[in-house]
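Appendix B, example 12.
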Amino acid sequence: MTIYRERLWPTAWLYISTALVIPASILVFMPINIVAGYVTAAVLYGGIVLFLLSTAPTIEVDENELRAGKARLPLSIIGAVSTFDGAEATLERGQRLDARAWLMIRGWVSPVAKLEVVDEGDPTPYWLLSSRTPELLAEAIAKSKLRTPDK
């Protein structure tokens, strides 16, 4: 049973900024054929929107594991969970970032959750995930760990 689920959809400004491909395509194809320009613009922008929608990752927590995109992390090896917002989140994604960390960060989602990995055999010290509601993610992990005692 899924306890927490979040899809990291791109924000509106990303769709607006990528819409610049429309006038660019029309300008490039206008000397050749205006209809080709409009068709190319529609196809390119439609492709960009489809790409953005289809690649938006999902974060899910159930009784046994955390899934972030295609990656999976058993709850039993998650230690402390920290959440950061604003300037602190920027520092976690930048100056404080460990090169060995596993990342699923998106530029359009500022807050992050930092999940400590307590498995001695895993060289990854922590996972850093973008999340619009990192507090709810941390809460869901804590609740799931209480339901499933360590084996």
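The mean pLDDT is 94. DSSP finds five helices and eight strands in the chain.
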